[in-house]
Amino acid sequence: MRRLFNVLSLWCGLVCVLAGHAAPAWGLSLDDKLALLVAAYPQSLSHVADGRLHFRDGGPPLAIDDGRTKTHAQALESADVEDMLSQPYPIGPCETRSEVDIDPGRVRSEALLKRLYGASREAVIRQLTTIDWFGARLKVTTAQGMDRALLKVRDDLAKLPETVMQPASKSAGTFNWRVIAGTDRLSVHSFGAAIDLDTAYADYWLWAGGRPGDVPYYKNRVPMEIVEVFERHGFIWGGRWYHFDTMHFEYRPELIAIARTAGFDACAAP
C-alpha cells in the first residue's frame, strides 16, 4: 500500500509539473520549499518575507517570483527563485527517465547563485580551496560548505568496491568561470559548486545529437551507488535530467532536502 501511494504521488507530481503547476501536488507548498531553501544555505540566507528572499549580509532582498509565466526554455534563460524550485528532483539508488523538459535542478536563478557564491570571477576565486580527489587537486568553493560536503562524498566513494567507484576516480573539472555551451548563462562550475566525473563514462545530450526538447535515451554508465553517495551529501545528478549530463554533479542541498521531505523517491516510479 505504501509503495502504491508513492507511485501515485510520483505520477501526480510529474503530471502537475508537466502541466505547469506548483509543488502542492507532490506534497509541499512554495512556502515549504522556500523554508527548506533558507535552511540549506544558512551562511547566506536569513528568511523569507513579503515575497522576497532576505540575506544575512544585509544586501538587497531578491524577489521570489518575477510574475512571468514561462515555458521551459524561457525558465532556463531567466529563472526566478520559484522557477528554480519548480521541478521535483527524485532521489534514491534507482535510475530514472525524465519526460520531455523535466530537468530538475537545471533551471537556476543566476541572481541567487551569485549571491550565494560570488558575483564575479574574482569574488568566487577568493572563496576557493583545493581538495585532494583520489590523487588529483581540485579547486572548489568553500561557500555554503560545498567543499566539506564534497570531501564527505570522496570519503564515502572510497568505501565502494574499486570497480564500482572507477568512474568517480577521475574528475573532468570543477571550478571554471564560463558560460554553458550555446547560451549566455553561467555554468555552476563558474561558482566552484559542481564537479564533472571521468568523461570516459559520460553521456551528454548534445554529444548524443539531441536538440532542445528532442533528446534520445541513453544507456547509463555511472553506477547508481556513486549517484546515491553524491545525493546523500546534497548533490544532484545530471543523469536525472531529460537533457542529460551524466558526468555532472552540482551542490543543490535545497533540492535534496525538498525531495526527502516530500518523499519523492526515484525507486517509486512505476
What does this structure look like?
The chain is α+β, with helices and mostly antiparallel strands. It has one domain (2-268). Helices cover 32% and strands 14% of the residues. It has ten helices and nine strands. The strands form three sheets. It has a four-stranded antiparallel β-sheet. 40% of the residues are buried.
Mean of residue pLDDT values: 91
Count of separate structural domains: 1
Strand content: 5-15%
- The geometry reads as globular
Q: Structural class, judged by helices and strands?
A: alpha+beta
Number of strands: 9
Work out the helix count. Answer: 10
Order of H and E elements: HHEEEHHHHEEHHEEHEEH
Query: Any low-confidence stretches, pLDDT <50, length ≥5?
Result: 1-25
The termini sit apart by 14 Å
Biggest sheet strand line-up: 6-7-9-8
Largest sheet: 4 strands, antiparallel
* Overall radius of gyration: 18 Å
Fraction of helical residues: 25-40%
Structural key phrases:
single chain, 270 residues, alpha+beta, 4-stranded antiparallel sheet, 3-stranded antiparallel sheet, 9 strands, disordered N terminus, peptidase activity, NLP/P60 protein
